[in-house]
Design brief:
The two termini are 22 Å apart. The chain has eleven helices and ten strands. The protein has an eight-stranded parallel β-barrel, surrounded by five helices. By secondary structure, it is α/β, with parallel strands linked by helices. The longest helix is centred in the C-terminal third of the chain and has 22 residues. The chain binds flavin-adenine dinucleotide. Flavin-adenine dinucleotide binds next to strand 5, helix 5, helix 6 and strand 8.
Length: 318
């Protein structure tokens, strides 16, 4: 079933869902199951699986020369989606990105997803390769999320890249896109970012999942601005349980988000990460309860392969 159908069937009740990341290459899929098993009591109707593009690594040879190699450290998105469907009977939502794919490769990946009975995708641009300053599309690839969205929409209408294909089977993907309550880091202003978000919705995005935020006011203001611009699709807040002192600098620098002073003060007072984790759980419960009361369709947790905080938050909220 589609994410939008799950939301409609919930009749205004807030659903629980989560995003997971594939394990590092060489690790076992059992890690994913061990993480998800304790969370299944909260009945997530869908689970997102992130996609991780290639990175450059440098291998040093005995003669001292460095060899540049391309590697994907977290492959397996499509396989995990199939495994989730099989093991839990939930709807997996694979993330698909522009970076690293030309349109032909994207089309082939979408055909695989369609044959696996996966009917949801979260369409994203993806970030630049780690060692590069700016995002560069592949030759013959999609440049922005909206370009990839057009490709998926096209396939939903039976339009494949090969124009002379007759009676091509239309796919039926429900398409989600990303939104940024604190604006995307490359956007010159929140309004400019919202203008492009509206374009994605007008082009066929059926719901929005937000970047993590720790201050609900940021979400409420974002949602209000979206509605004022005529963005009327469901907006799903993304929430990350705060866990370590290190995240005080890592989260703002990596995700370009602000942390509220009250949270920063509480974390700074902690003696160790066990205490930080407890602060994060309490913060997550408070954030989730307020968002649920506000009537958000889904609370979507960035669990990153660790279930204990999400489990404690969900127990208090659902
Ligand atoms: C919920 C969520 C899940 C994510 N999952 C993944 C994942 O699995 N894998 C991964 O690699 N990354 C993931 N990301 C990160 C995401 O790929 C990056 O934030 C990326 O930099 C932007 O992606 P986007 O889809 O928002 O891009 P876009 O919508 O293309 O926007 C990118 C930037 O360009 C601007 N823009 C958009 N359209 C245009 C246009 N037509 N002309 C000019 N400017 C434009 C926007 O304002 C924005 O600043 C995720 C992000 C979120 C919020």
């Amino acid at each position: 079933m589609k994410v939008t159908e799950h939301i409609a069937n919930a009749k205004g009740n807030t659903l629980f869902s989560l995003e997971i990341i594939p394990p590092r290459k060489g690790e076992n899929i059992q890690n994913i199951f061990d993480h998800l098993d304790p969370l299944m009591e909260f009945k997530p109707p869908f689970i997102d699986v992130t996609y991780h593009r290639e990175e450059y690594v440098y291998k040093k040879h005995p003669n001292g020369l460095l060899e540049k190699k391309t590697t994907r450290k977290r492959p397996g998105t499509v396989g995990i989606c199939a495994a989730l469907k099989h093991r839990y009977n939930v709807d997996p939502v694979p993330h698909i990105i522009c970076g690293g794919f030309n349109k032909e490769e994207t089309e082939n990946a979408l055909i695989d997803l369609n044959f696996l009975g996966i009917d949801n995708v979260l369409v994203l641009r993806g970030d630049a390769i780690k060692s590069e300053p700016q995002f560069k599309p592949e030759p013959g690839g999609n440049n922005y999320a909206i370009d990839l969205l057009h490709q998926v929409k096209g396939m939903n209408e039976g339009n494949y890249l090969d124009d002379d294909m007759e009676n091509a089977n239309p796919t039926d993907f429900c398409i989600g896109v990303a939104g940024y309550p604190e604006k995307h880091f490359e956007a010159p202003s929140l309004n400019s970012d919202l203008k492009y978000l509206k374009q994605k919705v007008d082009a066929g995005a059926e719901y929005i999942v937000t970047q993590m935020f720790f201050d609900n006011q940021k979400f409420f203001e974002f949602e209000k601005k979206c509605r004022a611009m005529g963005i009327d699709v469901p907006i799903i807040p993304g929430l990350k349980p705060f866990k370590t002192k290190n995240q005080l600098s890592v989260l703002p620098s990596f995700f370009k988000i602000d942390l509220p002073d009250t949270l920063v003060d509480a974390v700074e007072k902690c003696k160790d990460n066990k205490e930080v984790q407890q602060v994060g759980i309490e913060w997550g419960i408070q954030q989730s309860k307020e968002l649920k009361e506000h009537g958000v369709p889904v609370l979507h947790y960035y669990s990153m392969g660790k279930s204990s905080s999400v489990q404690k938050i969900a127990k208090a909220v659902f």
